[in-house]
């Protein structure tokens, strides 16, 4: 069963739309899942897999990244991945159709919250994995879900922290490299000045010597 769906901009993790099953909206556990979903958005990068399954307790996050937008849903762990990704593909297509021109410029979280109506409509079509329509989806070989990466939520968040540390180290190395380059340029300049000064001194001595003997 699809329990929660969130849509976020991949480049900065800004939540654009969300939908939650009505009887789960007040649960503390689902507030934790919402927080995890937002953290996943913030951990995304250019090298993040375009599709991924993320285990979290008895649940599973599934996400798809298309056109710079991350479409993420939370289901029970036993819910078929094929249906989850079929659901995400459906809402991704419609969301891009409606809001593609606005997505890059919005700054307010949940600017497209009205999209919940469409998500709820599609969700009803994917709730029952035993329906004839969904059985056909499960038998569809267009998408090889077996190859989609499965990760644990703790590993995802830990990897994000590690990447941050690596970014910090890269920044320090870049600073040190720039400082070394600046120091090297300064030393080269001093060496050049020393050479010119030596030549000038020799030339001055020669001029004094010539003037002394000729005059």
TrEMBL record:
GO CC annotation terms, alphabetical: endoplasmic reticulum membrane; endoplasmic reticulum-Golgi intermediate compartment membrane; Golgi apparatus
Q: Which Pfam families match?
A: Longin, Synaptobrevin
CDD domains from the UniProt entry: Longin, R-SNARE_SEC22
Origin: domain of life: Eukaryota
Q: Name one GO biological process term.
A: endoplasmic reticulum to Golgi vesicle-mediated transport
Membrane topology value:
Single-pass type IV membrane protein
Keyword list (alphabetical) reads:
Coiled coil, Endoplasmic reticulum, ER-Golgi transport, Golgi apparatus, Membrane, Protein transport, Transmembrane, Transmembrane helix, Transport
Recall the GO molecular function terms of this protein's record. Answer: SNAP receptor activity
Q: Does the keyword Translocase apply?
A: no
Classification via SUPFAM superfamilies: SNARE fusion complex, SNARE-like
Q: Which SMART domains match?
A: Longin
Keyword Endoplasmic reticulum carried by entry:
yes
Cellular localization per UniProt? Endoplasmic reticulum membrane; Endoplasmic reticulum-Golgi intermediate compartment membrane; Golgi apparatus, cis-Golgi network membrane; Golgi apparatus, trans-Golgi network membrane
Per its UniProt record, what InterPro entries does this chain match?
Longin-like_dom_sf, Longin_dom, Sec22, Synaptobrevin-like, V_SNARE_CC
Similarity section: Belongs to the synaptobrevin family.
Cited function: SNARE involved in targeting and fusion of ER-derived transport vesicles with the Golgi complex as well as Golgi-derived retrograde transport vesicles with the ER.
What protein does this entry describe?
Answer: Vesicle-trafficking protein SEC22b
The species is Paramuricea clavata (Red gorgonian)
Highest lineage ranks of the organism?
Eukaryota, Metazoa, Cnidaria, Anthozoa, Octocorallia
């Amino acid at each position: 069963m699809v329990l929660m769906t969130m849509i976020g901009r991949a480049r900065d993790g800004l939540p654009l739309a969300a939908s939650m099953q009505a009887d789960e909206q007040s649960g503390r556990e689902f507030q934790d899942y919402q927080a995890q979903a937002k953290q996943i958005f913030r951990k995304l990068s250019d090298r993040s897999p375009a599709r991924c399954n993320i285990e979290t307790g008895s649940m599973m996050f599934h996400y798809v990244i298309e056109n710079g937008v991350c479409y993420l849903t939370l289901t029970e762990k036993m819910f078929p991945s094929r249906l989850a990704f079929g659901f995400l593909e459906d809402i991704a297509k419609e969301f891009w159709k409606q809001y593609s021109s606005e997505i890059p410029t919005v700054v307010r979280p949940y600017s497209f919250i009205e999209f919940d109506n469409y998500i709820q409509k599609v969700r009803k079509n994917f709730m029952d994995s035993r329906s004839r329509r969904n059985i056909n989806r499960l038998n569809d070989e267009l998408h090889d879900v077996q190859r989609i990466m499965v990760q644990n939520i703790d590993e995802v968040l830990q990897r994000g922290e590690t990447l941050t540390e690596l970014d910090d180290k890269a920044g320090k190395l870049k600073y040190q490299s720039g400082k070394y380059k600046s120091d090297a340029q300064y030393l080269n300049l001093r060496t050049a000045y020393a050479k010119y000064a030596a030549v000038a001194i020799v030339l001055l001595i020669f001029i004094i010597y010539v003037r002394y003997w000729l005059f």
